[in-house]
Amino acid sequence: MTTTQKTADLPAAKSADSAGTPLLQVKDLHVEFHTRDGVVKAINGVNYSVDSGETLAVLGESGSGKSVTAQAIMGILDMPPGRIPSGEILYRGQDMLTMSGEERRKIRGRKIAMIFQDALSSLNPVLSVGYQLGEMFRVHQGLSKKDAKAKAIELMDRVRIPAAKERVNDYPHQFSGGMRQRIMIAMALALEPDLIIADEPTTALDVTVQAQVMDLLAELQREYNMGLILITHDLGVVADVADKIAVMYAGRIVETAPVHELYKRPAHPYTKGLLDSIPRLDHKGSELYAIKGLPPNMARVPAGCAFNPRCDRAQDICRTEVPALHPVTEQDGTTLVGRGSACHFWKETIHG
Amino acid sequence: MGRYVARRLLQMIPVFIGVTLLVFLMMYALPGDPVRALYGDQTIDPAQIAAIKADLGLDLPLWQQYWNYLMGLPQGDFGEQIATGLPVGEVIARALPITARLALLAFIIIVIVGIGLGMVAGLNAGRWPDTVVLFVTLIFISVPVFVLGYIYQYVFSNTLNWTSPLVTDSENLGELLMPAFVLASLSLAYVARLTRSSVAENRRADYMRTAIAKGLPQRRVLSVHLLRNSMIPVVTFLGVDIGTLMAGAVVTEGIFNINGIGSELFTALFRREGSTVVGLVTLIVIIYLAISLLVDLLYAVLDPRIRYA
């Protein structure tokens, strides 16, 4: 098996910061877990970048490594069993993986904050929400208990929790799911970070609340001009909010594209499959499409392209050679900015 | 909350009556005669024994003896010891502070050492500190108290000469330290193991990940976010345990010659001193009930998800 580890250079989707360095850049990141059954390679060379005010959506099934990438950025991977054998995570050009623990701690929460999926289990059940919000100010800014509480109330107002003043001493279990997620968002926003990583922020919520929470998040992001990495498996959520999308499969990025182009013309069979499996009203009565098979076991990833056992287009080359992330071009060879596809047959997928 | 406490306090009344009655009946059912026992092997006129019994009210029917006992309680009259003639109330008043000092000392050792060891083991679950703690606590759990007591005496008094083997002055905390350690050993091992499993489990909780993601210093993550959640099961055990400690430790008090509740109870049982046994057992039951109520209330403070109505 020959492996094409190297990822071809892609033109940047947006011009980078004024300084030329993106806010956050993940370069050829590898993460593996050492378990009793052997080494599980969860992330195999992921590259992406986010600028201020930009939203990157990371899309993929469970187990594709999207959350692990986020945890590696936050520095909250369990190590051991986790290990980062190679790669760089650059925050404003500085590699966070080589920083001391204390330096990283100071970035966490203050510069890069994270919103977790299940707000009920992610909030401490025995501490009041006011305390948990106020803790950010007390630890990072040295505010007094009283001032921190006032700030916490302000934050709760910010994320539009009704009667914030009365509810500041309530505990997480006393809030509804949507309100709890707002508290998570408020906590992430507390110190007005440069970047927020939202790991499936709306998955645990019902649909009406999902929209409210996403709108709130998008609005606050615009207001503070933050970068946002939105991790999700919900294509509906992505379309409205994201600027660009990275689709992950089995620990690799298989396609990157600006959001609308991806929906219009997917350049990877996996993306195409994902888009086709969205139920559509105008196809009522016909059978729902599903990608056949299951995501691979990360301890035994198929040789070649990891998607080959589930792919309609798979040829012999797919079973032997790992495809690099090719730059995607128009039929006449004009480059499509920010587009890439890790498929040997991307041309056929997008144009044929 | 207030109603809950009131209900719990009212529940104590039937428990109190039930326990005293039960102990009364059991003492009556035991073979042997406390008055006859006073005279050992001497031959004595049965009329004299009958006179003493009549004087102490022991010739009355059982229900009447029980009634008289209950009626005496509100006036602080716990009856009299037959052998010594001392009021039982006085015996308790003398023994209780000794046991309380010993229990408190043991309790402090349990809390500090037990929770400390448990934290260390739980945070290093699966690595060598964990193995060491599990091994040591296993020894404490499996070796009986009297063996442990003699080992301590041999090592710390006879060999190292750090402290006296017997307690000569029950107000000397230094002398009480070794018995307290012996008394604490078993519970300390349980507390360490409980804390360990609780910490090891909560360490992986989502809220811990959040706490780290917030950029909190390690110290704060552990002391504020981890410890408080991990203490919930431990507090239950500690509550029951402080009751056990206060009930006196017959074996430990025996080994170290401490005249606390445990040794008084043992002597009274031996001499068939009904009123003393009833008094001591009732006291122990009340201590148990009060502490379990306190623990239940403390529970709600530790875990706001628990509410009492």
TrEMBL record, chain A:
<dbReference type="InterPro" id="IPR017871">
    <property type="entry name" value="ABC_transporter-like_CS"/>
</dbReference>
<dbReference type="InterPro" id="IPR003439">
    <property type="entry name" value="ABC_transporter-like_ATP-bd"/>
</dbReference>
<dbReference type="GO" id="GO:0016887">
    <property type="term" value="F:ATP hydrolysis activity"/>
</dbReference>
<dbReference type="InterPro" id="IPR050388">
    <property type="entry name" value="ABC_Ni/Peptide_Import"/>
</dbReference>
<dbReference type="GO" id="GO:0005886">
    <property type="term" value="C:plasma membrane"/>
</dbReference>
<keyword id="KW-0813">Transport</keyword>
<comment type="similarity">
    <text>Belongs to the ABC transporter superfamily.</text>
</comment>
<protein>
    <submittedName>
        <fullName>ABC transporter ATP-binding protein</fullName>
    </submittedName>
</protein>
<dbReference type="InterPro" id="IPR003593">
    <property type="entry name" value="AAA+_ATPase"/>
</dbReference>
<feature type="domain" description="ABC transporter">
    <location>
        <begin position="24"/>
        <end position="275"/>
    </location>
</feature>
<dbReference type="InterPro" id="IPR013563">
    <property type="entry name" value="Oligopep_ABC_C"/>
</dbReference>
<keyword id="KW-0067">ATP-binding</keyword>
<dbReference type="Pfam" id="PF08352">
    <property type="entry name" value="oligo_HPY"/>
</dbReference>
<dbReference type="Pfam" id="PF00005">
    <property type="entry name" value="ABC_tran"/>
</dbReference>
<keyword id="KW-1003">Cell membrane</keyword>
<dbReference type="GO" id="GO:0015833">
    <property type="term" value="P:peptide transport"/>
</dbReference>
<dbReference type="InterPro" id="IPR027417">
    <property type="entry name" value="P-loop_NTPase"/>
</dbReference>
<dbReference type="GO" id="GO:0005524">
    <property type="term" value="F:ATP binding"/>
</dbReference>
<keyword id="KW-0472">Membrane</keyword>
<keyword id="KW-0547">Nucleotide-binding</keyword>
From TrEMBL, chain B:
<dbReference type="GO" id="GO:0005886">
    <property type="term" value="C:plasma membrane"/>
</dbReference>
<dbReference type="Pfam" id="PF19300">
    <property type="entry name" value="BPD_transp_1_N"/>
</dbReference>
<dbReference type="GO" id="GO:0055085">
    <property type="term" value="P:transmembrane transport"/>
</dbReference>
<feature type="transmembrane region" description="Helical">
    <location>
        <begin position="132"/>
        <end position="156"/>
    </location>
</feature>
<dbReference type="InterPro" id="IPR035906">
    <property type="entry name" value="MetI-like_sf"/>
</dbReference>
<feature type="transmembrane region" description="Helical">
    <location>
        <begin position="12"/>
        <end position="30"/>
    </location>
</feature>
<comment type="similarity">
    <text>Belongs to the binding-protein-dependent transport system permease family.</text>
</comment>
<feature type="transmembrane region" description="Helical">
    <location>
        <begin position="176"/>
        <end position="194"/>
    </location>
</feature>
<feature type="transmembrane region" description="Helical">
    <location>
        <begin position="234"/>
        <end position="256"/>
    </location>
</feature>
<keyword id="KW-1133">Transmembrane helix</keyword>
<dbReference type="InterPro" id="IPR000515">
    <property type="entry name" value="MetI-like"/>
</dbReference>
<keyword id="KW-1003">Cell membrane</keyword>
<feature type="transmembrane region" description="Helical">
    <location>
        <begin position="102"/>
        <end position="125"/>
    </location>
</feature>
<keyword id="KW-0813">Transport</keyword>
<protein>
    <submittedName>
        <fullName>ABC transporter permease</fullName>
    </submittedName>
</protein>
<dbReference type="Pfam" id="PF00528">
    <property type="entry name" value="BPD_transp_1"/>
</dbReference>
<keyword id="KW-0472">Membrane</keyword>
<dbReference type="InterPro" id="IPR045621">
    <property type="entry name" value="BPD_transp_1_N"/>
</dbReference>
<feature type="domain" description="ABC transmembrane type-1">
    <location>
        <begin position="96"/>
        <end position="299"/>
    </location>
</feature>
<feature type="transmembrane region" description="Helical">
    <location>
        <begin position="276"/>
        <end position="302"/>
    </location>
</feature>
<keyword id="KW-0812">Transmembrane</keyword>
